């Protein structure tokens, strides 16, 4: 009698899903695409390896099992560890050795903090997206999008601050504009329909627009520094081009669902487009020279080298839903 009551309770708690035994501590079951709830169905070419119907405790436990989210979870978690380690190193060794000012420390700290928040939010979403409650899963998705916005903000703050270091007016204009755009994105995320499939295309347009806006201050910076032929432009412009090239490639992976589109069911655990995008942006973290400072009397220009992430993880990964 007790077992029947327990089984009934599980049915009620899971919304009458027939897979209630997943709560038994003997292990975590993996499901096929046809078996998972509708809110988890995003890529029909990934046919197996799904976690579903899990309480929070088993979501955490699933960190150590092999599923189709394992690579996504660990790539972001290792990315967070990477940026945290580089942050400690930069703030304790690189910046002091370069004679950095207080504002350099602040900008570098804000930049690295934003990237770490972005990574952690992505880890949280990929870990808890399989929660038995659709409401909880959607909350983690919203947090993931918020983390992406914060990561984009960190990228813009550092880039604009140093690119227009010698022009306080334009620096303030672009920083205020970027902040206004990020706030607009946050307000859009509050809309009840934001996380629905109906807004899928609009979400993509929003993040593409915010990310692509960086082309405007880049062109302005090139013009202010004497055009394409200027040595400083030839030094830094290619890095910006590489950044947007990586974003474009990642976005193409996202919209085309290649390569799993051509090998359905063969790339469930490793090699899917989402994983390619995540690993691509996580590993594209070169050391960039971004800090430009000017002597008060305009004597000569100095450059300080800071470690920064060129692309918030999911300028395009964020477009996944």
Protein architecture, described:
- With 321 residues, this protein is mainly alpha-helical.
- The chain has one domain.
- Helices cover 58% and strands 6% of the residues.
- It has helices at 2-13, 56-61, 70-97, 102-128, 134-163, 168-190, 200-212, 215-224, 231-256, 273-283; strands at residues 30-31, 50-51, 287-294, 301-307.
- Strands 1-2 form a two-stranded antiparallel ribbon. A two-stranded antiparallel sheet has the order 3-4.
Number of helices: 10
Number of strands: 4
| Helix/strand class | mainly alpha
Whole-angstrom Rg: 22 Å
What tags apply to this protein structure?
single chain; mainly alpha; 58% helix; disordered C terminus; two-stranded antiparallel sheet; disordered N terminus; Progestin and adipoQ receptor family member 3; 321 residues; metal-binding; elongated; membrane
Briefly summarize what is shown.
The chain is mainly alpha-helical.
């Amino acid at each position: 009698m007790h077992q029947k009551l327990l089984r009934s309770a599980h049915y009620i708690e899971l919304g009458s899903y027939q897979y209630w035994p997943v709560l038994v501590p003997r292990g975590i079951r993996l499901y096929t695409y046809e078996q998972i709830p509708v809110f988890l169905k995003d890529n029909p070419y990934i046919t197996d390896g799904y976690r579903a119907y899990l309480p929070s405790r088993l979501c955490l436990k699933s960190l150590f099992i092999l599923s189709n989210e394992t690579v996504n979870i660990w790539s972001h978690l290792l990315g967070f560890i990477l940026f945290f380690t580089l942050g400690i190193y930069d703030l304790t060794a690189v910046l002091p050795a370069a004679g950095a000012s207080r504002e350099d420390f602040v900008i570098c700290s804000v930049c690295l903090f934003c990237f770490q928040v972005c990574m952690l939010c992505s880890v949280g979403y990929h870990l808890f997206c399989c929660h038995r409650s659709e409401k909880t899963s959607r909350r983690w998705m919203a947090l993931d999008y918020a983390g992406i916005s914060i990561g984009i903000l960190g990228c813009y703050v550092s880039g604009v601050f140093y690119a227009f270091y010698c022009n306080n007016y334009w620096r303030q204009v672009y920083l205020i504009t970027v902040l206004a755009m990020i706030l607009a994105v946050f307000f859009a995320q509050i809309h009840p329909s934001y996380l629905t499939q109906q807004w899928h295309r609009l979400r993509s347009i929003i993040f593409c627009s915010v990310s692509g806006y960086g082309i405007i201050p880049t062109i302005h910076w090139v013009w202010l520094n004497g055009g394409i032929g200027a040595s400083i432009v030839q030094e830094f412009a290619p890095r910006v081009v590489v950044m947007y090239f990586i974003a474009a490639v990642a976005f193409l992976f996202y919209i085309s669902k290649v390569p799993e589109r051509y090998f359905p069911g063969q790339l469930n655990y490793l090699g899917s487009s989402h994983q390619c995008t995540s690993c691509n942006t996580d590993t594209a973290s070169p050391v960039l020279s971004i800090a430009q400072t000017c002597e008060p009397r305009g004597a000569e220009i100095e450059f300080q080298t800071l470690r920064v992430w060129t692309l918030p993880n999911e300028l395009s990964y964020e477009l996944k839903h």
